[in-house]
Design brief:
Immunoglobulin-like, binds CU-O-CU linkage, six-stranded mixed β-sheet, globular, about 40% strand, mainly beta, about 550 residues, 5 helices, single chain
Length: about 550
């Protein structure tokens, strides 16, 4: 195993998109940021130097951080942010993970531009569970705003209304041919006729699930979130923010140029969304000189839940991943997830529907981050009053979650509540969408763990009916899972990683509104044993 050393300088960088130049926050002046490539078993040491004028942290999305919770990165959860002029070094090891992950800022909405691929190859001389592709192409899907992302965030927070939607989607930082002033820079990938390439697709978009496809080419899905799956062929991939999907593509079409394209899968009724399409070009070597346009694929309609469900329901993991599916459950949790509204006095700060501000919650608790320390530090240093451990294991009120619900029944309370999981216990969580404002998809991400997705469905979860349908044989292993519109998802994992671990909706506007909670896992009475001690350069608040 190797140790890889990197330096990330977080800085303001002028970038031109959609005919306009403005400063965005980048790592080392690159957008998207540098791709890190390692092997399973390697260690990473990344020194982050903050040369920007905003606080920042970096999260290694999907890395389990066994015994290294201080390197996880979410601000005020495992560390205080790195202030302008300061630096912090993240040190961690890749343990039993292979595939595509990514890294991103975990501080306000900076991850809109501060992100990059984290590619984990198998150990030396260990093959992929499929024919080795000739080339590997990272495809980072993103969202672009025509103005400073912090001002977009501030406006949403100030007004209490939904945020402005993005001005473009991007592939590897470029909007592509269909947007103004973007043609010359459209991302282009070259393939040789007959060869098979691996696309490592990452959805780095801030607030939007996406459909992705390539004209005329079938995609064979082989991996998700750094775990292999049983290969299956599809025309379209649906991918939520935070998720990654590895697909094989064989260049078996007439020599020429083909668009790959992505656009929104948007499930919230009557909500505004960016309805544009980003493209990149797949070009066969020795294509005839550009005379005709590349072939454009058809994408599902923005609200095509059938296509999304048909795709995700095909995911099964490879037998090698399944030796740990918990069957006996020790912690049986039921969490509602959804948007809510809080009443407010009419005015500029009360711009949600009918004199409200948007809020979001899990089990009716709208998560509030501490401001003076991080949760993990508060735990380690026994600082009282920072958090409580009374996060409810089941909803405080039970009703028809997907039906018409009166608002008064469901006004979220603000709180910094953790749920204490017994170390080593088998955990099951039912994640149930609600219908306070609208039903809509929520891509839920759990830090410090990956989990088996044993069941998914629409309507209210009903244990008597649904338990019997769980897949305990070959459920997919993921770190981010979609809770479908008006439906539910059930996940299972073993609580074998001590630390404080955030679980949240990976749609950043929902996270800001409080759609989050945290788990506390200690492996000794009142402490975490054999966990790396707080690093000396841990940033102060
Ligand atoms: Cu990819 Cu908490 O984030």
């Amino acid at each position: 195993a190797e140790t890889h050393y990197h330096q990330f300088v977080v800085q303001a960088t002028p970038v031109k998109r959609l005919c306009r130049t403005h400063n965005i926050i980048t790592v080392n002046g690159l957008f998207p940021g540098p791709a890190l490539e390692v092997r399973n078993g390697d260690a990473l040491v990344v020194k982050v130097i903050n040369s920007a004028r905003y606080n920042v942290t970096i999260h290694w999305h999907g890395i389990r951080q066994m015994r290294t919770p201080w390197a996880d990165g979410p601000e005020y959860v495992t560390q205080c942010p790195i202030q302008p002029g300061a630096s912090y070094t993240y040190r961690f090891t890749i343990e039993n993970q292979e595939g595509t992950l990514w890294w991103h800022a975990h501080s306000r909405w900076l991850r809109a531009t501060v992100y990059g691929a984290l590619i984990i190859h198998p150990k030396l001389n260990v093959p992929y569970p499929f024919q080795k592709p000739v080339t590997e192409i990272p495809i980072l899907l993103g969202e672009w705003w025509d103005r400073d992302i912090i001002s977009v965030q501030r406006q949403a927070i100030f007004t209490g209304a939904a945020p402005n939607v993005s001005d473009a989607y991007t592939i590897n930082g470029q909007p592509g041919d269909l947007y103004r002033c973007s043609r010359k820079e459209t991302a282009k990938f070259y393939v040789k006729s007959g060869e098979t390439v691996l696309l490592r697709i990452i959805n780095a978009a801030l607030n939007q699930q996406l459909f992705f496809t390539v004209a005329n080419h079938m995609l064979t899905v082989v991996g998700n979130d750094a775990a292999y799956n049983r290969p299956f062929a599809t025309r379209v991939v649906m991918i939520g923010p935070g998720q990654t999907t590895n697909v094989l593509l064989t260049a078996n079409q007439i020599v020429g140029r083909y668009y790959m394209a992505a656009r929104a899968y948007a499930t919230a009724q009557n909500a505004a969304f960016d309805n544009t399409t980003t493209t990149a070009i797949l070009e066969y070597y020795s294509s005839p000189p550009l005379s005709t346009k590349p072939l454009m694929p058809t994408l599902p309609r923005f609200n095509d839940t059938n296509s999304a469900t048909a795709y995700t329901s095909q995911l099964r993991s490879l037998p090698s991943n399944n030796n740990k599916v918990p069957t006996q459950i020790h912690e049986n949790l039921f969490f509602t997830v959804g948007l809510g509204l809080v009443n407010c006095t009419p005015g500029p700060r009360c711009q949600g529907p009918n004199n409200t501000r948007f809020a979001a919650s899990m089990n009716n608790v709208s998560f509030v981050l501490p401001r003076t320390t991080s949760l993990l530090q508060a735990y380690y240093q026994n600082i009282p009053g920072v958090f409580t451990t009374d996060f409810p294991p089941v909803p405080p009120i039970a009703f028809d979650y997907t039906g018409n619900v009166s608002r008064g029944l469901w006004q979220p309370h603000r709180g910094t509540k953790l749920y204490k999981l017994k170390y080593g216990s088998n955990v099951q969580i039912v994640l149930q969408d609600t219908a306070i404002v609208s039903t809509e998809d929520h891509p839920l991400h759990l830090h410090g763990y990956h989990f088996y997705v044993v069941g998914q469905g629409f309507g209210n979860f009903n244990p008597r009916r649904d338990n019997a349908r769980f897949n305990l044989v070959d459920p997919p292993l993921r770190n981010t899972i979609n809770v479908p519109v008006g439906g539910w998802t059930v996940i299972r994992f073993v609580a074998d990683n001590p630390g404080v671990w955030l679980m949240h909706c990976h749609i950043d506007s929902h996270l800001r509104w409080g759609l989050a909670m945290s788990f506390l896992v200690e492996n000794g009475p009142g402490k975490m044993q054999s966990v790396q001690p707080p690093p000396p350069d841990l940033p102060p608040c």
